[in-house]
């Protein structure tokens, strides 16, 4: 497929500009049309750029991108890495891969594992952000380690209950990592049983290791 103009999907990392790759920074600065969450636009957009917020109306955002693409490149910022639960999925459904350039970013999961000095090569990486993970990835087996994206519905307390129901020991070690890379970053360690009664940490990465 011929693409005169391109959609450049930029992973902006966990949020702080400190964790933005130089190529991502240059691409965002050079953008004429910039699409992203309100928080990303507040952090990275400049006054001369045309912006579009990614809100709940994903079809509307895709329509906007398609309209702009007829005459110019469009830069789309996504949090973390585009390859891990991002708007890249919706973009790939509407646009051919040949029209997309993807610039990777540091995932919130990578930073969470770094913060707790754990390797993630042997971990299952799961999202419960807006979804429920399949039972087989939640079931405990000895030596199992998981990194889980959380949200308001599937918050750490709820997820702890789900993991306990899937055979995880009450003593399993949990790290709750929120606002990673920001000044108000918090990393709290607890057991799985204790996590049942911890409130908050809704948009966080939960690392669990038996
Ligand atoms: C739609 S997913 C995006 C994941 C992203 N593509 C990535 O690679 O990190 C949003 C979820 O990522 C996690 N997340 C993103 N940024 C975070 C941060 N700075 N600190 C902690 N968790 C974060 C939270 O679980 C949030 O609910």
TrEMBL record:
Pfam families: TP_methylase. Keywords: Cobalamin biosynthesis, Methyltransferase, S-adenosyl-L-methionine, Transferase. InterPro entries: 4pyrrol_Mease (IPR000878), 4pyrrol_Methylase_sf (IPR035996), 4pyrrole_Mease_sub1 (IPR014777), 4pyrrole_Mease_sub2 (IPR014776), CbiE (IPR012818), Cobalamin_biosynth_MTase (IPR050714). Residues 6-194 form the Tetrapyrrole methylase domain. Gene3D superfamilies: Cobalt-precorrin-4 Transmethylase, Domain 1, Methyltransferase, Cobalt-precorrin-4 Transmethylase, Domain 2. Signal peptide: none annotated. Pathway: Cofactor biosynthesis; adenosylcobalamin biosynthesis. This is Cobalamin biosynthesis bifunctional protein CbiET.
């Amino acid at each position: 497929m011929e693409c005169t103009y391109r959609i450049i999907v930029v992973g902006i990392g966990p949020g702080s500009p400190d964790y933005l790759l130089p190529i991502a920074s240059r691409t965002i600065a050079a953008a004429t049309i910039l699409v992203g969450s309100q928080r990303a636009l507040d952090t990275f957009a400049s006054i001369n750029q045309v912006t579009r917020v990614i809100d709940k109306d994903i079809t509307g955002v895709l329509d906007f991108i398609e309209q702009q693409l007829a005459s110019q490149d469009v830069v789309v910022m996504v949090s973390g890495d585009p390859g891990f639960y991002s708007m890249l999925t919706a973009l790939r459904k509407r646009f051919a891969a040949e029209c997309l350039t993807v610039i990777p970013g540091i995932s919130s999961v990578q930073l969470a594992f770094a913060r707790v000095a754990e390797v993630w090569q042997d971990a299952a990486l799961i999202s419960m952000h807006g979804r429920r993970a399949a039972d087989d990835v939640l079931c405990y087996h000895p030596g199992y380690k998981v990194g889980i994206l959380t949200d308001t519905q599937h918050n750490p307390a709820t997820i702890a209950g789900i993991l306990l129901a899937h055979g995880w020991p009450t003593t399993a070690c949990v790290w709750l990592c929120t606002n990673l890379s920001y000044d108000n970053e918090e990393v709290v360690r607890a057991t799985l049983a204790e996590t049942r009664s911890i409130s908050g940490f809704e948009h966080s990465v939960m690392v669990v290791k038996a």
